[in-house]
Amino acid sequence: xxxxxxxxxxxxxxxxxxxxxxxxxxxxxxxxxxxxxxxxxxxxxxxxxxxxxxxxxxxxxxxxxxxxxxxxxxxxxxxxxxxxxxxxxxxxxxxxxxxxxxxxxxxxxxxxxxxxxxxxxxxxxxxxxxxxxxxxxxxxxxxxxxxxxxxxxxxxxxxxxxxxxxxxxxxxxxxxxxxxxxxxxxxxxxxxxxxxxxxxxxxxxxxxxxxxxxxxxxxxxxxxxxxxxxxxxxxxxxxxxxxxxxxxxxxxxxxxxxxxxxxxxxxxxxxxxxxxxxxx
Length: 280
Fold this sequence. Notes:
Strand content: 5-15%
CATH superfamily: Metal-dependent hydrolases
Number of strands: 8
Shape: globular
Helix content: 25-40%
Structural class: alpha/beta
Distance between the termini: 15 Å
Radius of gyration: 17 Å
């Protein structure tokens, strides 16, 4: 079973997606499950995990409606306001759906580098593990120290780092990202998605070798049992089509054993998110 562990859907409007700005016109369109399946199934994927792209509970509900109508959509990582007094109620309602598997907040857009360590935010995070829910970390490198502190504070909460914390691929920067990334990987409750790197490079002139050392660090630090492949479709389309974005990872893991490759291609995501088997 192959799982694309990170992709998005939306019905585009300017008001709903203000982050799609100048130079990102390729994303100013509708992207639906049928569009994903058209590019993912030919590469052997049998399912995906849809991740929030708007910070509204309404979007979480909409993604679950898509999951109800599309068996290919195996899990939903949605959004709730973890600092809200209503967080327990919101999470309990969403978690009642067997394909609601986790929560994400767009921490990368928060100006406070220690946003993750806010008292109210941590209080909301403590609600996840009893419900069997995971948390996706969407960060920039300067926010990794707070993530290291957080994941040590909540050792029983499963976390996954999106996009390797978006290292400076375009500038060829490796430090201080590598040191902090490796420290985060030392926490056994943290996994990592091999995803999202292509849009951290020069969109028009990247080369596969641009990503090699970042992927090597991830493979060495986390190991196959804590890594999962993700396309970041359709955001990847800014710099590469679906097949090219996936090929960056499959090429990097080609020397691993079949068992190790199978973990990255779907086994880790299935275990981490607790994805249910399809009905027979």
